[in-house]
Amino acid sequence: MSTLHDATLWLCDMDGVLIHDERAVDGASDFLARLRERGRRLLVVTNNSLYEPHEVSDRLTDLGLDVSAQEIWTSALATASFVAGQRDTARVFAIGHRSMHAALSDAGCVVDAENPDFVVLGETQEYSFDDFSRAIQLIDAGAIFVSTNPEPTGPSPRGSLPGCGAMAALIERATGVAPYVVGKPNPFMIREALLRMGSEPRDGVLVGDRVETDILVGAAIGVTTVMVLSGVGTIDQVHRAPVRPNLVVNSVADLISSI
């Protein structure tokens, strides 16, 4: 594992690490500026599959954080990479926002609502009863069930909203088939991120705010892990976790002097 000072690649979660409650975390802009100053590479690795990379970049820019679309790796992109790698031309029935459909199309997958190889579930704010009915029928007929991420809820200014994990549970209950979840803590997502960046685990640091996803996957891959307390995770969860981070800090602002 690398020390923070020697790490050449920083893999950072987004929600809870760089932003929280639709605001930039205090010190996040200075943290990113320090990475640029030191010539470190950045990849924002988020389980949020609702937005395309350029939309995430625009969202962060609006909050004062300079992150390009090329520096963003979402669970939708990782899921599309996984599905495309399982068949020469994977046929899919997908439920999700346009980000999910765009990622699958860019990866060479073909839409097929009649006889797909895969049913792919991502996040959207427009879940349809008809889509869920069709997904259940297709999985019953033998299609492989894949979902982007495990979170049961997502944050909003109004409070928690149903997440992909909750929607996947509905389909699982109806079919008896659990999804293959591509997003964190599945090591596939981070392995693909490292491959995308041409890096090895020893080169990287993963910064996250959830023990059960970020820290767990970082430990599985072998990157140095940093837990920040600026998101949903608490120090009590760290103490109770079977896999602990290499370092716990209040926020990314505490990491600036170590880069």
Per CATH, the architecture of the largest domain is: 3-Layer(aba) Sandwich
Strand content: 15-25%
CATH topology of the largest domain: Rossmann fold
Whole-number tally of structural domains? 2
* Beta-strand segment tally: 15
- Tell me the name of the CATH homologous superfamily of the largest domain: HAD superfamily/HAD-like
Quaternary class? single chain
What's the gist of this structure?
Strand 13, helix 8 and strand 14 form a beta-alpha-beta unit.
Key phrases:
Rossmann fold, 2 domains, alpha/beta, 259 residues, 6-stranded parallel beta sheet, globular, 15 strands, 5-stranded parallel beta sheet
Q: What is the strand and helix layout of this fold?
A:
Elements: E1 9-12, E2 19-20, E3 23-24, H1 28-37, E4 41-46, H2 53-62, E5 72-74, H3 75-84, E6 91-95, H4 98-106, E7 110-111, E8 118-121, H5 129-140, E9 144-147, E10 153-154, E11 161-162, H6 164-175, E12 180-181, H7 187-197, E13 204-208, H8 211-221, E14 224-228, H9 235-240, E15 247-249
Parallel strand pairs: 1-4, 1-13, 4-5, 6-7, 6-8, 8-9, 9-12, 13-14, 14-15
Antiparallel strand pairs: 2-3, 10-11
Helix pairs in contact: 3-4, 3-7
